[in-house]
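Worked example 3. Consider a protein that binds glutamine.
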Amino acid sequence: MQVGVLALQGDFREHLNALTQCGVQGVEVRTPLELEKIDALIIPGGESTTIVSLAKTFEIFEPIKKRIAKGMPTYGSCAGMIMLADHIVAAKDGQETFGGIDITVRRNAFGRQVDSFESDISAPAISNSPIRAIFIRAPWVEKIGKGVEVLASFQGSDGASHAVAVRQGHLLATAFHPEITDDFSVHRYFLEKVCT
Ligand code: GLN
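Given these inputs, the predicted complex is written out as structure tokens:
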């Protein structure tokens, strides 16, 4: 199985490293031709508005959207979660997504860059031990549709608990960045449970 990492912007190198740590040689994806060669995709953290605009410039936005709709296993972290959400709150005017997961995410829900933080969170479906989660201008999930499985939640500044890791069939998304920790259990879960 060939796993690609969307390498237009954001921390795609960290995802490639995480794949290597899991024994998988990932490939960078920037063009429709490179997309055709992969079986699964990771959308990195970064800035969702920039990812959209570069994906359009590279004419890979619609091809990715179609592959996702046709069932390509895809994992998105942070900005990648936003890209996989069907709906966004606090979006930039007219901001589009690839969509696929029936959720509404709130961009920058956990605050601005200075409000970035780390925490150990419980995600029993992914790992028996708590997962080290790093949140950087992270979204949270505000509405969850039928068929979406919540894998982890975290309390926001509003005092309520919000989903921060979700799965809908072949699609997986986390509001946090496992790729910049040395805990690769989310990547392993993606490779072993979502891609198979
Ligand atoms: N706030 C960013 C966005 O809207 C996501 C931040 C991140 O990926 N660390 O795309």
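Take a moment to read the result before moving on. Residues 45-48, 78-79, 82, 107-108, 136-137 surround glutamine (CB under 6 Å). Residues 32 and 166 are 27 Å apart (CA to CA).
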